[in-house]
């Protein structure tokens, strides 16, 4: 297993377009998290899943954002009608049942022009 | 909820000098504490963590941090830094009970730059 995988690594989109990111957690990790990191800031929590259930959503997750994990394995994060303020690094992390360490992917850098 | 304060946004230091990156947290419940390192255009890598037991924790590359409950601090130290330690360092906390360890609250980060 090569760790948490995110795709794409970079995405440039025009304002108003929809984008979708994918995260593949470490195999058999049942918890999956999404974070957003803007320039000069630490990562901020967006949402997390335990298996396929979305258990917590941050107030940062506006109605333009939706996350899914339909089969309890990979997850997608969709942003509709992107705005320039959505430009950020989107990070995915996963933990296993023992819940002793969160492993992060390399992130998807979104630029909205 | 929890919050983390990293007082220093940038710390420049010469190679082989000691360094301390400061981290203070606020929480009404018991917490787990972490330091993550981020290299340019990369994700986060766990450097070290405090979950329980000894309040002094060490990483494999010479960093150490001490959990001080009375001062609500978890400062990161290294006695002699290398140029390869240049990176952004993030302190983070999560609630020790009633939540999942991956639900993290991060500080704003400290950019450590090591000069030759």
Q: What letter string, H or E per element, gives the SSE order of chain B?
A: EEEEEEEEEEEE
Distance N to C terminus of chain A: 35 Å
Contiguous uncertain segments of 5+ residues of chain A = none
Number of beta strands of chain A: 11
The largest contact between protein chains, plus residue counts on each side, is: A-B, 28 and 24 residues
Low-pLDDT runs of 5+ residues of chain B are: none
Q: What is the count of DSSP helices of chain A, taking H or I runs of 4+ residues?
A: 0
Structural class of chain B: mainly beta
Average of per-residue pLDDT values of chain B: 94
Shape of chain A: globular
Percent of residues of chain A in beta strands?
over 45%
Report helical residue fraction of chain A: under 10%
Given the helix and strand composition of chain A, which structural class is it? mainly beta
Let me know the number of strands of chain B.
12
Distance between the first and last residues' Cα of chain B: 41 Å
Profile the largest sheet of chain A: 7 strands, mixed
Q: What's the helical proportion of residues of chain B?
A: under 10%
Strand content of chain B: over 45%
Report the C-alpha radius of gyration of chain B, rounded: 14 Å
* Assembly type: heterodimer
